[in-house]
Amino acid sequence: MHLRSLTLRGFKSFATSTTIDLEPGITCVVGPNGSGKSNVVDAIAWVMGEQGAKSLRGGKMEDVIFAGTSGKAPLGRAEVELTIDNADGALPIEYSEVSIRRTLFRSGGSEYAINGQTCRLLDVQELLADSGIGREMHVIVGQGRLDAILHASPEDRRGFIEEAAGVLKHRRRKEKALRKLEQIQQNLNRLTDLAAELRRQLKPLGRQAEVARRAATIQADVRDARLRLLADDVAGVQRDLAQEQADESAAKAERQRVEEQLAQARSVEAEVEARIQEIAPRLHEARARSIDLTRLRERMNALVALIEERRRSLEREQLEFSFGVDPEDLQRQADSVGAEVVAHEDVLAVAQQAFEAARDAAEAVGGQVRAEQERVGAAEHALTQYRQAVAGAEQSVAGGQRLVDATQNRLDRLAEQYEPVAREAQDAAREAAQLPQLETVEVTVDSAAADRAMQDAEQAVELARAELSSQEQRRASLTARCEALRSALTTDGDTALDASWQHGSLDSLIRVRPGYEKAVAVLLGAHARASVLREDVAAGDALAALAQDDSVRFVLGGTPQTADSEVLTYIEAPDFLRGALAAILRGCHIVQSLEQASAIVGQDPQALVATVDGRVLGRGTAGQGSEAGNVIALRNALEQATEELVSTEACWQRAVDHLSRVEAQSALARQHRDDVRAEAAQEQARAAAAAERDVHVRQRAAATARRLEQITAERDEVSAALQAQITDLENARTHLAELTAAGAPSVDRTALEDLLAAQERARHAHHEASLNARSAQERHRALQTRHTELQEQTAQAHEAVAAAARRRIEREQALVTLGRLDAVARRGAALVEADARTSEQHLSDLESEQATLQERHTQARTAALELAGEVDRLTLDVHRDEVLRAGKRATLEQLTEKALEEYGLTVDDLVAEYGPEQMIPGAEGEEPHAFDREVQQRRLKEAERGLALLGRVNPLALEEFAAMEERHTHLVNQIEDVKKSREDLLDIVADVDARVQQVFSEAYADVEREFEYTFSRLFPGGQGRLVLTDPDDLLTTGVEVEARPPGKKIKRLSLLSGGERSLTAVAFLVALFKARPSPFYLLDEVEAALDDVNLGRLIGLLEELRQTSQLLVITHQKRTMEMADALYGVTMRAGVTEVISQRMRQLQPV
């Protein structure tokens, strides 16, 4: 993104329409003083929303309109239009080119427009807010900006960093939240006062008339008793929760203690295992050395025997030649040795067969050990799953039993209520039947039932609305999650191939079992993101349609499946893909651990094995991680979220339908209530002459009958629910019994230990057989050598007589040499023998130590498994307690909701006023007494019975009481809503503070780093740094600048020279630019106070900024002009600014 053009009409000294075309790179604006160069910077700041006239070097905003000259009249408006290239989409608007226009009329009116469409200032500010070029950003460096930095306080310097980091929008959000919080607190105070006043008026409200006063007294007793019983229930649940919380802390402490013991046991196991791994190479080395020494000992003994035999042969030959050697005698000796060679070949074959049998036995035992290790691992995994299943079943049984008990208690209470109500209904009906028939009209309308019906309908509407709101929130959450997952899955890896030729990428067409995404992705490798060609598309045609430099990979759809792969069991794929997947994944495996992968690769070097955590081994390679693993996991998550969204959509639609129905029912109930009240008034007027007793009896009979019907209906409903709960409980118990009967799978390590011992014995036998085979080979070679020598001697015997003298001398010399060799060989054999005995002793010690460590390792592993089981048990106990607490919390929430909805009291007010620890005022002349639940229950029943016997009362008092109580409930709800809003605002303020700290800390670290680098560039050999005045409070800390030019010890800015201070301010600004880069910067004569050397250093920094940002520089410096890509000259003629331009690249020689 960069500025493309700037058009000024009537802005300050630009009387005529002037357009400045801007290009990426550096654009310099030059001209004499007072010609209007800085007006270009002011115009850009003004069009981006600057509202301060002083920032535009004026007294009031009208000063930006051309004021006229001696030869040109003033204009009536100023207009600036800024065109921005938005090809990279940096601005949040769907246009590749964005024009922002601001117009100010001399009458005071102002207009803004974006791409010709009229808009507000707020729209412009929001458009530029997150792009780094907003009106409060640091991109415009005017003539007074350096002076502001030099004279700024540490808090003001912090403001510069906050502007660069974009913190101001968070602070505005916090200020807005604080203003709302203040308003909410005022509203809360007013509502609290109103609610307190209403609570004080509730109790004495009913004492306005004789009958109404008695009714109000009884109603007050009923309400007081109910509130005290409800408060006692709440207090009991709170006590239970507190006790269970303490039990939970103890359980968690015990679990932590056992986990620490488990960690210690596993640490011991790891240490022992590490010791075993440490000894293993030494043991292998000792065994190899023992084998080598044994082989060397055999060779030395064979060498000594050979020398001895040779010496005896020479001596015999000397004697034979001395007395005459018989060739026939030599031939007989050769035949004897040849027979011995033939006989020894059988011995050698037997030893070789024994060696191969021992080797095969060792390999077979090794395979059995690996298989047994896999079996033991699977058994341990099955045991863990069994324990989890049993815990879940126990939890279901416990929860079901609690639910059945609660329902049964409710059914028992209804049964207890049914008998007295039924008798009372029969008595009332009998009394009503015995009454004489009156000629007057009886009152048959029950307005209270209509009121209750309307209240129930309104409550149903509120519940339906709450349910609909919950479903809408869940639907919005799932929709946002799906959109986020789809956005995360968006890739730019599409090929240039026609979409009709391909199905899509491979990872979008397969579904991997959860938990195996990383393993499958690392096995697929580059194929995971490859495009899948359709079955009717040839691979050659697809490759021919691509450019030569395109890098792409295809998977051929419709490939016949000629082989199978075990990895396909973890993948769901269309049929046309399974053949290609089988070919790609041939010889691939998925295991749980890297040890299992190493074992498989050791058996089959051509196998490729991946672990579930994304590590791969085999085929001469090893590695871990794959970008496709995240993509596959995201696709699985997207499918699950989509399924949940579809289900939530259905629930939301049902909630909408239910809300429509209950609203219609509420409207009907309200209409019915109004009709009933009107009818009741008419019937009361007609029945005014009837006897009071008849009315009372009939009303009592009707009320009792309705009460009986309600109890009967509720009892039937509870009975049906109880049967369903009992069925669920029996199913849960059956499942638990099945798990218990099946028993926990056993983990038998005896076979594994026996196989390990057998493996060690097989290795020892293989070692012994190897030694025997090598000894037999050495002996066989010695006999063959002897036989060859005798044959040669026999062949040469006939020629030896002629050379007897010469051979005698040679034999004598050979005897002397053999004597020396015999002495040396015997000394070497003795040394080898001693070394072999030492090596065997060392090998025995290492094998003994290995056996001890393996025993310790087995004990440590057993202890770790026991402690792990204990941790699992404690975890299940804690979880079970959490479920119980959740039930009690649900009960507490129900009681809280009941207190709030029925009585308009919060839990705190309820317990504070009616808790069991509060003394109950006595009647006149009686002392207050403590709370007794049975007494209060009897009091409630008596009050309800007395209220039923009162008969007709003044309805005006009751309506007034109901209206005031409803108003009080409404106020309490408003108070709760206001408190919730206040908590939400406090959370917003805390989040904003945390975000400000994070953004400022990151920005400060970047600016500090860039300032040190920039200062060292502008002051070679000097040192500069930024220091926080209060590092512990990142919300209010200031920023100090310490600058030490080369050769000076001063650090304060006030002690620097004017040029050094300006250069330090420039270093600070450039550090801001590099730490938080923006698309463009406007610099107004920032290098005016610099000498030629420092100007060259600054130009070097500007060259670096040119690579990432567009620069518009107001300058008088020739060297600055020389580095510009475009140059604009500004001049003043008759009070009007005129502009000429020159592209500097065209002036350079070709």
Describe, in plain words, how this protein is organized in 3D:
There is one protein chain. With 1150 residues, this protein is an alpha/beta fold. The protein is 67% helix and 10% strand. The strands form 6 sheets. A 6-stranded antiparallel beta sheet has the order 2-1-4-5-6-7. Strands 8-20-21-3-22-23 form a 6-stranded mixed beta sheet, with helices on both faces. The model is unreliable at 206-210, 438-443 and 1146-1150 (pLDDT under 50).
List strands and helices in order, with pairings:
Elements: E1 2-9, E2 18-21, E3 26-30, H1 37-47, E4 77-85, E5 97-105, E6 110-114, E7 117-119, H2 121-129, E8 140-141, H3 145-150, H4 154-165, H5 168-202, H6 210-323, H7 327-434, H8 447-489, E9 502-505, H9 506-509, E10 511-512, H10 517-524, E11 531-533, H11 539-544, E12 554-556, E13 571-572, H12 575-584, E14 588-591, H13 594-603, E15 608-611, E16 615-618, E17 621-624, H14 627-686, H15 692-742, H16 750-800, H17 804-903, H18 907-914, H19 933-949, H20 955-1018, E18 1023-1028, E19 1039-1044, H21 1058-1075, E20 1080-1084, H22 1092-1106, E21 1110-1114, H23 1118-1122, E22 1126-1133, E23 1136-1143
Parallel strand pairs: 3-21, 3-22, 8-20, 11-12, 14-15, 20-21
Antiparallel strand pairs: 1-2, 1-4, 4-5, 5-6, 6-7, 9-11, 10-13, 15-16, 16-17, 18-19, 22-23
